[in-house]
């Protein structure tokens, strides 16, 4: 259930990022005929981004741990931009999906996606029940 919520929030964040024209981030649908295909494309790209982030992102974070310490975590901005660019490369290789114009605009887009994910994560986080004594 958490994965589905993460995918839906990522799809919304990707949609918001593609609405900002200066970021040079776009989306190409499976079949440009209708809105349903575009929605399914956003969900598929969000699922691929979540998988790339959880698998490759975890490996990068483990390997680059000393860089995280040296830069006080600022290297995570570059890593997130790289993961977004990697997702765009994977999906555009399939003939549909995300396109990122420049790596640095991808970093800015990844920052916006992270902010949106943090806001929705705080809202949708399950509340722990307090025990009654």
How would you characterize the overall build of this protein?
It contains 5 helices and 2 strands. It is mainly alpha-helical. The protein has one domain (2-124). Strands 1-2 form a two-stranded antiparallel ribbon. The mean pLDDT is 89.
Briefly summarize what is shown.
The protein is mainly alpha-helical and 133 residues long. The protein has helices at residues 2-19, 35-63, 65-70, 75-93, 103-124, and strands at residues 25-28, 97-100.
List the helices and strands and how they pair.
Layout (H helix, E strand, L loop, with lengths): L1 H18 L5 E4 L6 H29 L1 H6 L4 H19 L3 E4 L2 H22 L9
Antiparallel strand pairs: 1-2
Helix pairs in contact: 1-2, 1-5, 2-4, 4-5
């Amino acid at each position: 259930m958490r994965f589905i919520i993460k995918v839906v929030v990522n799809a919304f964040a990707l949609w918001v990022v593609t609405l900002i024209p200066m970021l040079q981030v776009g989306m190409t649908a499976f079949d440009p005929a209708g809105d349903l295909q575009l929605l399914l494309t956003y969900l598929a790209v969000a699922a691929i981004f979540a998988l790339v982030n959880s698998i490759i992102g975890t490996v990068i974070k483990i390997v680059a741990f000393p860089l995280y310490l040296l830069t006080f975590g600022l290297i995570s901005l570059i890593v997130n931009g790289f993961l977004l660019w990697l997702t765009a490369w994977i999906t555009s290789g399939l003939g549909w999906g995300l396109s990122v114009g420049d790596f640095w605009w991808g970093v800015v887009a990844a920052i916006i996606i992270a902010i949106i994910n943090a806001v929705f994560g705080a809202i949708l986080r399950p509340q722990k029940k307090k025990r009654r004594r």
